[in-house]
Amino acid sequence: MRECDVLVIGLGHAGCEAALAAARMGRHTVGLTLSSEAIAQLSCNPSLGGPAKGHLVREVDALGGEMGLAADAAAIQVRTLNTGKGHAVRALRAQLDRRGYRSHMLRALDAEPLLEVLETEVTGLRLTGGRVTGVRTTTGGVCARAVVLATGTYLHASLVRGGERWTGGPQGQRAACDLSEALRAAGLTLGRFKTGTPPRLAGELDYSRMRRQDGDDPPGTFSFLNDRGPDVQQPCWLTHTTEESLRLVRENLHRSPLYSGMIKSVGPRYCPSFEDKVVHYPDRLRHPIFVEPDGEVFYVQGLSTSLPAAVQEAVVRTIPGLERAELVAPGYAIEYDYSDPTQLWPWLEAKALPGLWAAGQVNGSSGYEEAAGQGLLAGINAALSVRGDAPLVLGRDEGYLGVMVDDLVTRGVHEPYRLLTSRAEYRLAFRHGNADQRLTPHAVRLGLARADRVRRWEARRTCLEEALATLERTVPAAVDPDAAGTPLRVYLRRPEVTYQSLAAANLVPPLGPAEAAEVELAAKYAGYLSRQQAQADRQRRLEHLPVPVELDYGGVRGLSNEARVNLRRVRPVTVGQAGRVAGVTPADVAGLMVHLEARRRQGVQTER
Amino acid sequence: MTDTIAAVATAPGVGGIAIVRVSGPQAVEVADRVVGLPKGRLTRAAPWRLRLGWAEDEGGCRLDQVLAVVMRGPRSYTREDMVEVHCHGGAAAAGAVLAQLVAAGARPAEPGEFTRRAFLNGRLDLAQAEAILGLVNARAEGGLRVAAGQLAGALSAEVRRLRGGLLQVAASLAVAIDFPEDVEVEPPTLAAIRTELAALVETGRAGQIIRQGFSVVIAGRPNAGKSSLFNALLGADRAIVTEHAGTTRDFITEAVDWDGLPVTLTDTAGLRETAEPVEALGVKRARQAVDAADLILGVVDAAGDPPDTGILQELEPERTLSVWTKTDLRAPAGPGLAVSALTGEGIPELRRAIAAHSGGAVAMAGSGGPCLVSLRHQGAAARALAAVDRAEGGLRSGLPWELVALDVNEAVETLGEVTGESLRDDLLEQVFSQFCVGK
Description:
Order of helices and strands of chain B: EEHEEEEHEHHHEHEEHEHEEHHHHH
Helix content of chain B: 40-55%
Oligomer: heterodimer
Shape of chain B: globular
Helix content of chain A: 25-40%
Strand content of chain B: 15-25%
Radius of gyration of chain B: 25 Å
Strand order of the largest sheet of chain B: 3-4-5-6-2-1-7
Number of strands of chain B: 13
Number of helices of chain B: 13
Radius of gyration of chain A: 26 Å
Number of strands of chain A: 20
Number of helices of chain A: 20
Structural class of chain A: alpha+beta
């Protein structure tokens, strides 16, 4: 039987990052896919990024992942969102060419000498003494010291449109049914989620009836290793649904599987089907539609639906600009099994199945970026485990990666989980511009940062530190007699003063726009930043106070019943994590701390 | 346990001295902002030594003469840095000092928090800690029952309502930031919520009276009839009354309940220049009691020949009610309330006048309307108001919404400390119920 260190099941966005990370950390890695066609497939929207998601791509890049590089290579339009709402929430979003994205990722997989890709279907897990030691496949099996489950929406997937339902994965792929049963048999609790995708269009579009949306000039990049976005960009087109579109949906609502009772599983509220929008917001007479270039066809963002194909086409033709469009591929809803992520430790290993890590949509998340982030961390931790090293767990104060994983494993999911900037309590500290300063040190330590990344990270750090140091100098009278003697750091807080204006007066070293913005933020928002820092410092002590995983919560006095039940289920590893478990109040945390201290002292006594 | 906590350590309403404790890494710095020493500063004071000083408010106005002692961790009850402030003015002064410590950066302690820290830091064993916590909790519940019963429901409903309004604002900022292309969001306004929140914070004054009692101090010249008035108001012969001037040497305090208004009534030594050392000490303490009082009854002997109204000039007019005593002998010769302790005439009117000066605390206690009684709730509401003020200022000056959101979220979170709700649970629920997102 074939043997390897790290085995990755599924090569979507989570699987690719996991396999690449493990291989780059020197582990013999095997990646399994149902079909090589499905590798790094952007199976829904042809875009990446936006608030929190763009930040996540930056963080994946800073930690040595591949997604940012692939996105830069495939970008056909790049925009910065939230420019007016603050520096930290400013985020990059890019339209991508699917084929370009896939081919970049395939090349990256191919370039890793320790990584091998196999096309096969996993039918079961190999268990040795309660530990996962490999998988059984339709073509035999693979032994592995660590297995990463990154199966996306493929577990027991079924597609629904109109009155029809058929078994299958996204984009015409097969579903993985045996594996779903094997996971259940091994003791994992699985739930069922639903998501959907809009129709793809071709034919004649009337651009005069839609609003053109162009990319930025100059376009930005996701990766810290790149400086320039694409030379040639393509526009997107904005339009909206009409009252006629709403009428058609209402008339055909009984034919939508969401309302006929065919689909009972929960879908994401932030990405509702068009049917849901019509029903839940009856007062809204029009909904925005974004027509996005997608190879030879167009993706209709905003029109996710599982109505019968004929109705979909009729609805599309009620939209200004799309009157003569043709449906190339109708939208559909997909239902799939996910594994309750509270079954995982914060390093993404299954509590009940040591040796098995899980990442991506199988954990109940949604989105390419969320999947890639988890994949990278699962791959790193699988590799660390094989090496016998302690896992990497990022804090909620280190980045969106830390926030996302903690949310998943501590709070669980009630709908497909999407990362939002609002989920981060230290949002101001998580910026596109400092993802490298926050996370690249981890990449360096893990051996995931190539020489050029280390060089760029160090150069940026030096630049930023020097610029910040010069801010301690004072304003010379020649520049502003009224402010003479004021430290530049304070002077920079004035609304009319910018870093670039100080640089123009030769008071500070010249910097690029991204770095200048970082330094400016440190000065202008110093009060807000230090408040958040103080909050994070207070919390950090609790984050480092361990809770024994075998703790008997029945013996902890003063816990509410809800807290006790949930703590037993989640088994938090720190007091900080315990405080975030659903139903746990500050009083419960105080009770837990008292218990732990009493236990510690008893332990000391019995040792004597 | 990286924050600094403060609380009144002595039982409420008992004894002339009350002790306020502060514990945590900033304990000495916080106390130093409130307690001024005649020489040097508390931060440099030798530990475990009592120092005489004055507790002052932000404006430097003296609240009470106090003794303060710094105890450096780990040689303290909690094993953290601690300061004890011994207030001479009793419970009311201690309340004022605590409020000042909170304004200076301490957080009002949860019931039993000092003991919990003492345990967690290894000072007490579990049995000791549990014994003490049991006592603390029993007392806290007993104390709460009095005021909390009718007020707690109305308060949490009001806080919930205000929090709901702020949550809507938080949701619109969140949706604007997290779904920039999905919905158009109008700039939110906070003016209405700010006004309502400020009104709630105002009820803290009445709440403080409900919690600690309304402190009324009787002051006047020797033999003006203060002790007779004291007894008449109490309806009991509590103070010794003689014809001799200077009979009352120390002050006497009694707690009474007048139609739901808890009053601590204090009789003091007559105010005059004296060379007699014991009496001089009494006069000094009388002046301290007067300084810490919520309301002073400035007593003038109507039968005096002529009546000595000089006392009224010595007292702060805003806090003073002029009361003419012995009016059975002669009618008052100036403005003020006329009473006779002998006949009881004017006593009911005086009680009503005292209630009228209690900042509406009686009305508040009776109406069942929302009222901030506990200092913890007062602190939370005040912090929420400050956050709303910052957010409003930020919106007006065009601060980026990510910063405005920080303050609005803090206000929601802070009010949630009163209602037991968390922003984490509610923000996204609100976003999805308020907005159609998903472009």
